[in-house]
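Sample intake sheet
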Amino acid sequence: MINIEMIKDLTDAFGPSGFEEEVVKVIAKHSMDMDIANDAMNNVYVRLDGAVKDILTDTSARNGRKKPVILLDAHTDECGFMVQCIHENGMLSMVTLGGIDLTNIPAHTVWIRTRDGRKVRGITTSRPVHFMTDKDKSAPLDIQGIFIDVGASSKKEVQELGIRVGDPAVPDVAFSYEEDRELLFGKAFDNRMGCACILHTMYALKELHEELAVDVVGGFAAQEEVGTRGASVTAAQVQPDLAIVFEGSPADDFYYGKEKSQGALGNGTQIRCMDVSYITNPAFLDYAHELADKKQIKYQDTVRRGGSTNAGKISLAGRAVPVLVLGIPSRYVHTHYNFAKKEDIENTVKLAVEVIRNLDADRIKKLLHQNLI
């Protein structure tokens, strides 16, 4: 059962890269009685069974592990903005946090969060056609020519609102769910959908933890959109033997035909074969296919020409970590507004649960060594 209220809480939370505190609190709220901790970077660790501290950097505890560890990863941050300068006329210059195409920035509303936690609504500027020449209309956009307008007319007025240089901002979008079409709408599906999948997977496994061949740890990583930074820390802290990375993957069915689309809404979880940062472990890929086919779980394979996930960092940790990347196709990621389908979340969680439940000593050995020598 997919918890729509949890997804609403996650997607509505304010959390651009480096400012994920609200997301951390939502994860804690929905972690039930599982052990949870966070670090100075806003990375969050949740353990299915036992104390989180015993699975992190305590060398003696780590060396005494009774089971191999599987890390369930998703990043908590969303693309957003930071106030770079406050001009005398009250306009705010900004920089982007994460990869946002400039054409998606003008003429939208955003929330700026001040140091004391207050949120101020602003509009990203766009020049009315009345004041544009033909040359202006065809000129490329420049981030230095796009501002945030909070309805002020002076720098002093902006400062009186509590806004300072360095304050973060995110799109102003509220989550909604159409039950009849099982269609989700909101912001930050990349990657609050992945965060939801970690929690749902751990819920599904909670009563089975004693039977599992692995110790399950959720790693909610900060600052993925600015260089997969949080995963460098979570991978070093947990030192997993295996990992599943959950992503709100960019859907492609709105501009590709059926023969080329690899991220269509309603076609199931997206199993990533490669992207620019990583190539899937072949044994892990075969295992996922085997289970999905056997359990009739809908999936779609994808080979990405661009983009990356935390798998790039996690797969290179320690002695190399086999990683499976499962994506929830989401339209228009890295913009204000996203669509996703409930059934794709369900299929993603189902496959992750089956992968973990069916692991045994022989399968783990095959995944770690592939029986080549």
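Comment: The chain has two domains: 4-78+187-369, 80-171. The chain has eleven helices and 17 strands.
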